[in-house]
What does this fold into?
Amino acid sequence: MSSTTTKEYAVISTDHGDIKIEFWPEVAPKTVANFKKLANEGFYDGTAFHRVIKGFMIQGGCPNTKEGAKGIPGTGDPGYKVKAEFNDRSHTRGVISMARAASPDSAGCQFFICHGDAKFLDRQYTAFGKVAAGDDVLEKIATSPVTFGNGGEKSTPTTRLGVKSVKIVAE
It folds into this structure.
């Protein structure tokens, strides 16, 4: 047995470049396992970041953002929910966390990456990793032009912010 441990990362390939995510399985094991499962199944391939709030976060992972999908972006799920794993990791720039509806246990596939500090989300959303590389890509996406969406919030990108693929890689 080798003395070096292999770490797994997610590489989110976007229209603006790659974002490499380091996982925190020690604080959110089921959430990390679910994200990796969906990535390995190609679930995220062809989706888009559908909600962008500069200084706060970028949100993606909704199957309703795929080309030709029916349904409102931001309302899709994988057909099941994941129990929340609130932890002591703070929502600071670069942290990836699960998006959810009002119920704490309503997350499934949608995620957000903090563009700024959002500590008011601590222990209310499941933080499960952080950006290890690609902060410049986070910046490009987070500062993309937005307009008003269905909910009246100015957070809908004016151009598609596509996710080509999410791949799990080992190092």
The first strand starts at residue 8 and ends at 14. The chain has a mean pLDDT of 96. The radius of gyration is 15 Å.
